Amino acid sequence: MIRFNTPFQKKKTVIALGAESCGVFCVCRKGKIFLSDDFGDLLDEANFRFFKKSVLEYLKQNDIKPDIVISDLHPLFKTTAMGNELARKFGAKFFQVQHHIAHIFSAYGEANFGKTDNFCGIAMDGTGYGLDGKIWGGEIFRIKIKNRFSARSAVAVERIGHLENQIMLGGELAVEEPARMLMVILSGFLDKESVYKYLKKYYSKKQFEILRNQLMQNFNCAETSSSARVLDAASILLGFCGNRRGYKHEPIDLLEKNSSVVYKDIKPEIKNENGIFILRLAPLFKYLAKNTRQKNKKAAAAQSYLAKGLYKIVEDNFLAKNMEAPVYFGGGMANNKIISEYFESKGAVANKKIPRGDAGISFGQVFYYLSANSGN
Question: Once rounded to an integer, what is the mean pLDDT over residues 302-319?
Answer without folding.
Answer: 97
